[in-house]
Amino acid sequence: MFKQLGLIGCGLMGGSFALALKRAGLVQTVVGHSQSPASAQKALKLGVVDRVVGTAAEAAQGADLVLVAVPVAAIEATLQAIGPYLSADSLVMDVGSTKQDVVLGARRALGAQLGRFVPVHPIAGKEHAGVEHATADLYDGCQVVLTPTEDTPPTSTERAHALWQALGCRVRRMTPEAHDEAYAAVSHLPHLLAFAMMKAIQDQSRGEAFLTLAGPGFRDFTRIAASEPSVWRDILISNRQAMLEQLDHYQQALNAFEAALIAEDAPALRELIASASATRADWRLGQGPSTD
Amino acid sequence: MFKQLGLIGCGLMGGSFALALKRAGLVQTVVGHSQSPASAQKALKLGVVDRVVGTAAEAAQGADLVLVAVPVAAIEATLQAIGPYLSADSLVMDVGSTKQDVVLGARRALGAQLGRFVPVHPIAGKEHAGVEHATADLYDGCQVVLTPTEDTPPTSTERAHALWQALGCRVRRMTPEAHDEAYAAVSHLPHLLAFAMMKAIQDQSRGEAFLTLAGPGFRDFTRIAASEPSVWRDILISNRQAMLEQLDHYQQALNAFEAALIAEDAPALRELIASASATRADWRLGQGPSTD
Predict the structure, then answer these.
(1) What is the ipTM of this complex?
(2) Tell me, what CATH number does B263's domain have?
(3) Are both A159 and A49 inside the same structural domain?
(4) In this structure, is residue A100 part of a structural domain?
(5) Which of B12, B211, B241 should be substituted to probe chain A, the one whose Cβ sees the most A Cβ atoms within 10 Å?
(6) Do B108 and B6 share a structural domain?
(7) Is B287 part of a structural domain of the chain?
(8) What pLDDT band is residue A125 in, cutting at 50, 70 and 90?
(9) I need a surface site. Which of A116, A292, B167, B241 has the fewest CB within 10 A?
């Protein structure tokens, strides 16, 4: 049980975390700060936070739990702002989708306070940003990846682990490097491909007419293309090297399909599809081993 | 109201059509045939069909409505088999995802009976094939595209139009050419891209581990990659020319994202994402104009 959550960033991810903590009875008070005063006021009105403060530092003061739920590019500056106000029992976490840059920024920003920080990536989200879409069940049953470094005290990692587990999540641990490599493949690349799909249609003279004909397959395939531009610009730039490698892998795969199509090689095309289809049919969300 | 539906192909699409017709009270008897005796027996057991027959011709005999719900590559042979058994009041439709090749095949197969045939593409589906996944509501509210040709009598088109409308669908009409071009962009290309995504991950040594980490974004993006290999081989090959053009458009869009990433041009990358994201956020399933 935490006395006070300092929520920095009152959006979908942060808001849902506060609601989940409240639902689980794991927090007494939530103090919120947002760069956008309108978001903070909305969070207050919706009961996501109990009190709004004007700075990140004020949100961290007196908090035994701090969630930095801001875009990855803003995490370092936020940690720098709150560092001096953390107390001996504070646990600080982020929810960023890339981890090497967050760890690097935390190292620079927190100095002696680095041990309070546990880098976290909850594998959850919606295409609609904003605290008005926050729900207590956003994290229910989802995977949460912790990427502690050699500088993270095991006690901090254990506290974070137990907390997300108490919220009903499957918790896994990996290095920031392994995290970024894996998520370039299974999250960042799919986002980029979905963005490119929308652009490819937009750029055609009949694109608008085409879009009126699209069905449920298109709806699901492009759902993540509605994601927030600044957040995803930061993620793609931050994980640039792994992204370029994954783009190479993807290009090779795409070329194989295109070559079979150009050659009208029906058996080769069927074989390519069958292999992809079997792998996808066998896949289940969140079937990975959790670290207990 | 139809006296007898001859259902040729007892899978997801055909089975759901039979169930929808029954639910709407629009058919007295459903006679089913499937190349796979097991599927036909399953359809009988599930109450999707009332009687099973051994050949497509028998299913068409005495039927005032025939649905050819087989993969596109098998439509021509099926039409050829049933042509001699069609009666003066028969309405024959398919549910194929490509239309130029179906129209061409129908022309060759049906001869003087061509006027009974209306080419249809219902924009509905699931990643799970098979009659066991058929439901009466699969077509509820979905778009259905009719692609009559100059050889299709208006009365046949009107009958098909009224029928799908009675099942709760939004019906549109377009030429087979326009259909194939549009669906290359909004359906066939997304399928190919999703197949390639699975292949790109499979081909990496750590692909299996990556997959255990994937979340709901990946789930939705790759849902269509689980589609049936033979069905999609046929669709891609049949719509090959339009597919190759759409692949070119896509490659250009992908190159734009990759160039911005290589150059670490954050403003350009944000602009590309913002434009894609806005278009996707504005899009709604089935918001196209229906042809009343």
Answers:
(1) 0.92
(2) 1.10.3660.10
(3) yes
(4) yes
(5) B211
(6) yes
(7) no
(8) confident
(9) A292
Same domain, B81 and B215: no
Q: What is the pLDDT of residues B180-221, one digit of tens each?
A: 999 999 999 999 999 999 999 999 999 999 999 999 999 999
Residues in A 198-257 with any Cβ partner in B closer than 8 A = 198-204, 206-207, 209-230, 232-233, 236-237, 240, 243-244, 246-247, 249-250, 252-254, 256-257
A26 interfacial to chain B (CB closer than 8 Å): no
pLDDT(B125) > 90: no
Q: pLDDT tens digit string along B4-33?
A: 999 999 999 999 999 999 999 999 999 999
Residues of B in contact with A218 (CB under 8 A): 186-187, 190
End position of a domain, from candidates B153, B175, B197: B175
Contact residues on chain B for A182, CB-CB shorter than 8 A: 206, 209-210, 213
Measure CB to CB from residue B198 to each of A145, A270, A276 and give the nearest one.
A276
- Based on the structure, what is the number of domains in chain B? 2
Mutate to test the interface with A, among B198, B245, B287 (most CBs of A within 10 A): B198
Nearest residue of chain A to residue B126 (CA atoms): A217
Q: What is the mean pLDDT of residues B112-137?
A: 92
Per-residue pLDDT, B286: 78
User: Does pLDDT of B290 surpass 70?
Assistant: no
Do A167 and A186 reside in the same domain of the chain? Answer: no
Q: Could you tell me the residue range of the domain that residue B208 belongs to?
A: 178-282
| Beta carbons of B190 and A274 less than 8 Å apart | no
Q: Which of A174, A209, A240 is the last residue of a domain?
A: A174
- B280 near A CB under 8 A: yes
Say yes or no: B141 and B182 in one domain.
no
Structure tokens at A150: 């050699």
CB contact under 8 A, A213 and B145: yes
CATH (domain of A119)? 3.40.50.720
